[in-house]
Amino acid sequence: MQSTSSKKMLMGNIVSGLLAAFLVMDGVMHLTRIAPVVEAFNRLGFPMRLATGLGILELVCVAIYVYPRTAVLGTILLTGYLGGAVAIHLRVGSSLFGETLFPTYIGIVLWGGLYLREARLRTLLPVVESSDQNTEEPEFPAHRAATAAQL
User: Fold this and answer.
1) What is the DSSP code string of 98-120?
2) CA 45 vs CA 48, 130, 149: distances in Å
3) Residue 47 and residue 103: Cα distance in Å, rounded?
4) Cα-atom radius of gyration of the chain, to the nearest Å?
5) 44 versus 64: which is more confidently predicted?
6) What global pTM score does this model have?
7) For range 63-70, the mean pLDDT
8) For residue 114, what are the contacts with CB-CB under 8 A and spacing of at least 6?
9) CA distance 54 to 35
10) What is the DSSP code (8-state) at residue 125?
């Protein structure tokens, strides 16, 4: 029987792996400049010469994300990359819940996968059930401060 921690790790690896595969596919599509990429770049007002650089940037960020020792940095970098995509879609007036917020949905899954596979992040940002009995502010335990310093 697996412990709760190893189940979280397994689930996090599955979620992160599926997301990484999707992002790699997206990065490769930028490099190969297939028709949907050309159409999207034209609609967004981007010159095609930027496709290669964006594809390489995305692939590098994904590589940093999948390597366990740099996963937190990779998540932060990909969050910035995805935030840029949201800004571009807002600028051109894309549909809000479709194209504009799609990178946000990807970012939520990105952080969720990291949260499940990274015990230090779960320690730093614990999900705690609320209790009506205890209304006073909890203290920040010393072991969390030490873990935060390690990140």
Assistant:
1) IIITHHHHHHHHHHHHHHHH-HH
2) 9, 47, 42
3) 21
4) 19
5) 64
6) 0.78
7) 94
8) 12, 16, 65, 71, 72, 75, 121
9) 16
10) S
